[in-house]
Structure formats: structure tokens, C-alpha cells
Prior knowledge:
The chain is of the alpha/beta class.
Amino acid sequence: MNNMLLMKAHEIQAELKSIRQDIHAHPEMAMEEIRTSKLIISKLKEWGVTVTEGVGKTGVVGTLKSTKSGDRSIGLRADMDALQLTEKTGVSYCSTKTGTMHACGHDGHTTMLLGAAKYLAEHRDSFCGTVHFVFQPAEEGQTGAIAMINDKLFERFPMDTIYGLHNYSEQLGTFAICTGPMMAAADPWFVTFHGTGGHGGAAPHRATDVTVLQAQFILALQTIVSRNINALDTAVISVGAIESGSFGSVNVMPSKIRIGGTARSLKQSVRDIIERRIRELADGLAASYGCTAEVEYVRLGIPLVNHEEETKRAIKAAKAVVNEANVNPNGQPSMGGEDFAFLLVERPGAFIFLGINNEAETRNLHSPTYDFNDDAIPYGVAYWISLVQQELSI
């Protein structure tokens, strides 16, 4: 454990806290991170970091070379975008944009990576090689990583490895990670049933009823995980939206009903089963009710799979910052989605969770009352510095 790194990170916490709260007050949706990018660019240039703008549209890459030349290179990634949500925190730096807020901590992720860039720029003699600070847009829509890859991220900024970090609702200053699948593929799906519709009071027997059909379909969905997926595998299927009919004419049986939801999986084989069974159930049940079905299954992301060697390195770097007891090397995979997974297909690396909860407050992601804990900033900064100095050791 290196208490000095954490102490150094604490020394710049006040400045970083101000940056974080500024970003929080001015949230921007995916691919609209114009102000955020400008702030990042300004700070990186102020600290002497070489900046490349517009990578993957609104992404920013800061490049820092050590005093002593070295051939090794590492990438550190943070996401920048906000969520479509109305903030209810009541903090003085509350979102200035109605309906948009930082409810996933990307303001904190960006700030912690900026803190690492500031420290390392002032201590270029503490490592040997090149660090690329990757500020990615559009994580929430799972398009930002692909946009940066398509913009030749790894060709323009050669990296031997790449690492990511996300806050989570656990004890402040704790870390968790695991080798292999750590986060899920997050697939939205949509099913539309078509029937004849009709008069719900006078002649329901003359109509094909899509409302009863959708009720049976939703119940049948629950059998996919319980009866089609191996009990030792993990999967989630949830319904998030149902759209049909009119409360102004409740005696009218609708001719169309649309259902949407999400499916989560950690393995490709499980994902294939989920998609196949959703289609089979929709088509089979529709036929049995004299209706038709349209199914759209969108493979939006892929499972995030940590590389074994890089996971060990991330664990070692975290243990250098906090007590060994505060680093869980066998963390439980999350069924949340994360497009850092695409970066890990291109280069070896690892993704780690950082706990931000204190005893007084639990901070749940994607909640209108969520606010990143500024006390977590030094832990993230110190972790990044530890990782760079370890991987690009002199």
C-alpha cells in the first residue's frame, strides 16, 4: 500500500471537486458532449498534455510522454455523457438542463482521469513510456467506443493495453474486479402483435384480441430463463414498456400492441437462446391467437470480458492504493452493460469497480437522487497513477 499516492491525490481534490461539480451542473447527452470536451481540452492543455480533439465525433485523447523515452504505452478511458433524467438531488450544483443529469457518475469518471493526467504531467519522471487519456462520448447509448474505434483510435494512438473504471454502490475506497465476463451484453427487444381489433363490449368474440395475447407472451417470457437457460448461467429478461389502446375509448379492443424490454447475458450461447426463444414464443403465440407478430432484437453491446493478466495487474495497482482487504479480486459480475467491452476486443485490458458509498448515504446509479461522491475522487486518481507507474515502470 502506497499512502503517498493517496496523499498526493488528496492534495488536488479541491480543484478536482470544482471541476466535477461544474461538469455535473452542465450535463450533455451522447454525442453532444461539446462543453464537456472543451473543458477537458482546456485543462489538459493547461497541464501540458498533448490533445487530439474530435475522436469519434466529440471524444478527446490526451497524450503524455515520459521525460525518459520508452516504447511501452497504456490507455486509460473515462466516459463523459449524461442520462435523460430529471435531477432531484437538491445540491447547489444541480443540473442546469431540465431532463438531463449525470446519474451514472460519468462526471466523476472524467474528473478522476483528469486528476491523473494533471499529476502525471507534473511527474513525467515517475514513469517510462506513453499514456493516452481517452475521454469517450456516448457510453450510455453504447455507440461511443465503436465510434472511436472506427476513427482509428488504436492506430492513431498505439496502446499495449487499455483500462477502464466505473463507480458502484459499495463502501467508499473499495475496489472489485474479476477475470473473464464482468458485465453483460445489453440487448433491447421489441415485439409488435397485430390483430383485428373490435368492440370490447358488443362483439369481442368477433375480434382477435392482442391484449390477451400480450399477457400470455409476457408470462411465457419468464420460462426462457427458468427452462431454456442452464441454471448455472446468468440471464435477465425484463419488460419495460407496453403501448396500446386509448383510455378515451376503453370499449375499443386495439388492433395492435407493442411491447419492449431488455435482455442481459454474459455468454454468446445464452444470448443466442434468448433471441431465438423470444422470436419463437412471439410467433407461436400470435399464430395460436389468430394474430401476427413482428420481432426486433437489437444486439446493442457485447459482454465485457476482462483479460486474465491485465486483471491481475489492475488488482496489484489497486492494492498499492488501499489495504488488500479493500480489493475484491473475485467480484460478482454485473448485469449492467458497458461499451468498454468493445475496446477490450481490440486490446488486452481490464475494467474495475470503485466503491463510492459512505455510511451516511447510498448512491444508486441511474436514480434522480444520485450524485457522485467527491470523496471518491482521490481513490480513482491514485489508482490511475498507480497503474501507470506500475505498467510503465522506470
